Amino acid sequence: MPVLSKMSRQAKLYQRLRTKGYPWVVCEIGKNGKPKVSPNAFQFGVRYTLDGQRKLDSFKTLNEAEAALRERDVRLYASKNAGYFPTTATTVPTTRILLADAVEQYLSDKAAEGKDHKTISAYRFALDQFTASCSKKFIDEIGKQDLKNFMGWLRLHAVPNRSNANPGQTYKNKVLYVVIFLKAFGREKLLKKSEYPPCTSKIVSAHPDEELAFLYLHAMGDVRFLLDYFLGSAVRNGEATHAEYSDLKGCVLEIKRKPHLNWHPKKHHCRNIRIPAALAQAIRERQKTATSTLIFPNGDGLPNQHLLRDLQEFAKSIGATFHVELHKLRKTAATRWALAGMPMHGIQKLLGHKNLETTMAYLADIDLTTGQIENTVEAASFNPPVKS
Description:
By secondary structure, the chain is of the alpha+beta class. The protein is built from 14 helices and 7 strands. It has helices at residues 62-80, 99-112, 117-133, 144-156, 167-183, 209-218, 221-233, 237-241, 277-288, 307-317, 326-339, 344-351, 356-362, 371-380, and strands at 12-17, 25-28, 47-51, 56-59, 248-249, 252-255, 271-274. It starts with 11 loop residues before the first strand and ends in an 8-residue tail after the last helix.
């Protein structure tokens, strides 16, 4: 690969390829001319791109992409040095970091740290919006006013409200993503605690028995199995998406890292979940006719990333008037465990919460006046002996 000048930091060379874990990955081409990607990746379809002003241009071959990169490099240098047009690559010393380069470096670091690809996509979306709203070219020029401008820009470019969404939380998350990004490059303490946008956390309620009965009355085949799986295990969406038949040991479902799928549990919280015997048997019966090692594969044999969509389309087709989502099924399972008398620390382990406070807040809306809890409290009370 030819030696390129420092001006090339404004136009990097990338390769777009398919990996075993996710459909497509855009990775930077290193100085050795090879893509910076893990060894378990394979080329399914390839195109080379240049990333200059947050826009991808496609090239069919590596030589074509390199030629375009060098041409852009020379053009950028010439625009900064009028009257001089170098015929060979020239090093232009610089110590300042362009905002666009800082974004790519930050996202590359997060990928190297093993962050989930959906998390990185959320980071990129927020940072792209910040770049669009910011008039500063270099990262060291950014100050408090730029963050204030970004907050105003977000309010002017708010996305349409979706049913059961929490736009306030989305707005706050984007600001936090940018603040953390700037901190990584030494731009710290730009906002006071009182200056962060306030928001109200979204409250997720469990399904009452009437709603569960309505869903099961119409559920058949894969949809019924999906309901059984989430209500019996209380797993997160990604944990179900990447679940394999080999994870089941007796009536215990293992939640563990999946390097071959480029996936790991949230915050690397591996755990074992005791599931009902009926669900364990249903998983084994499903395996007999399975063509994939995954419990929930898509048409290509890869993890099915659309379980939520499938569930909501089913609910819509049967005329459900209540909201349905996978996280609500997880909350329902945990609530039913609590009402059945399971200790809080046991629920914490099954849910994969790091702190018991998280579990207690998760179940804070349980009605403590229900007969089940009332009977449990009465049974647990101590009755001292009566003096004769």
